[in-house]
Specification:
20-stranded antiparallel barrel, globular, 2 helices, 391 residues, 6% helix, Porin, mainly beta
């Protein structure tokens, strides 16, 4: 442990004065928690971006074993494995190849796939964007170690989309498969979703766009197939406000927005909703607001008109500017509740929430802070320090 603390102090000193991106703090990856130390500079050469990182981690900040490389179920004590390729990107406008930390993915109107993200993993994202045609694929693999050389699957969910523009219409066809789909991950061992797909069509109408998206979800053996359709409108007000609102109809257990930010965490908690529900008529409504450079936020609600299945989710980022000797403050919060009105409390046993408070220490780029995570019925606190807030 003394060796770890000494290394931390040396690294902090070098990074602060060299201006190299750094992160020190707790992260969760595929259902497991780790304490991570990462230096991750990036270099750009025209259309090429390369990020090479030095990453170490421990299973516990005080008593855990010290390992090199990405957090995984096959830890390494070889220092060579601490050097990682964090980003490799080629952007040629019409063609983009990217390997790196995953970013949220949305297809169509977001009825089937909306902001899907497996946090703290890396993947390949390849896209082609022409005047009337576009396509993209998401392949979840990451370099785990150099010695021995190991390239492993970072997630079991693969995605792809094909789009075509004809006249004023935009047509999009997307598909998803979870190769690890199992009753193990569903509530009460219900029918799991392995395959999903959707077709969406949108058209501008004045200051808004109208759209419709039809989607299906299937069990591994195709014995159960849920169907759903969403129709609504969305648009923007200048550059500060985005909104969406519409109604959906689900058949044979179809689950709206099944592949979202919560999919991975629900999966590792064995709490994925099963494909065993009934038909339902419901709504989706929400907005996003951008008040740069002072912050941004969003709020969405999904539910059925009969009062069943309400889901409330939102997030907010506030950037309080520096005043005199006060360096400013960064406030970030996220909220998700599948039963927001059941227990008559904003935070209950079904709530997933996080609050992060960051204070800039040096030139506004080097920060330290406290993070609070809601776990069932209490807030758990952790600390972090670095030049950015996400691993």
């Amino acid at each position: 442990m003394k060796k770890l603390l000494s290394l931390t102090l040396v690294v902090l000193t070098l990074v602060v004065f060299a201006g190299v991106p750094l992160f020190i703090g707790t992260v969760e990856k595929n259902g497991e928690k780790y304490f991570v130390y990462e230096i991750s500079p990036e270099f750009s050469f025209g259309p090429v971006k390369l990020g090479i990182g030095f990453t170490t981690y421990a299973t516990d900040v005080v008593y855990g074993t010290f390992y090199y490389g990405l957090p995984s179920t096959e830890p390494s004590t070889n220092i060579i494995n601490a050097f990682m390729i964090n980003t490799l990107e080629l952007n040629l406008n019409s063609f983009t190849f990217r390997y790196g930390k995953t970013k949220p993915i949305t297809f169509g109107l977001g009825f089937n796939v909306r902001n899907y993200l497996n946090p703290n993993t890396r993947a390949f994202d390849i896209s082609i964007n022409l005047e009337k045609f576009h396509t993209s694929v998401h392949i979840p693999y990451e370099l785990q170690s150099f010695v021995p050389f190991s390239f492993v699957e970072s997630d079991s969910v693969y995605m792809g989309e094909i789009g075509y523009k004809f006249g004023a219409y935009d047509l999009s066809i997307s598909g998803v498969v979870d190769f690890d789909s199992s009753t193990t991950y569903t509530i009460d061992n219900g029918t799991p979703v392995k395959y999903a797909g959707s077709v969406s069509l949108t058209i501008p109408l004045g200051i808004v766009r109208l759209g419709v998206e039809g989607a299906i979800q299937s069990s591994p053996d195709f014995s159960t197939i849920g169907k759903g359709i969403f129709a609504g409108f969305y648009g923007t007000l200048g550059s500060i406000f985005d909104y969406v609102a519409g109604a959906f109809y689900s058949l044979d257990g179809y689950i709206p927005r099944y592949f979202d930010r919560k999919y991975t965490s629900l999966k590792y908690e064995n709490q994925l909703p099963p494909l065993d529900g009934e038909s339902g008529l419901g709504y989706i409504a929400g907005f996003e607001i951008y008040l740069e450079p002072y912050g941004n936020g969003s709020l969405y609600m999904l539910g059925e008109f009969n009062g069943e299945m309400p889901v409330l989710e939102g997030n907010i980022n506030l950037f309080i500017p520096s005043i005199s000797t006060f360096n400013g403050l960064i406030l970030q919060a996220s909220y998700y509740d599948s039963t927001p009105f059941v227990e008559n409390r904003m935070f209950d046993s079904d709530t997933s929430a996080r609050i992060k408070i960051s204070y800039p220490l040096i030139s506004g780029s080097f920060i330290a802070g406290i993070q609070y995570d809601w776990e069932v019925d209490t807030w758990l606190k952790s600390v972090f320090v670095g030049t950015y807030g996400e691993f």
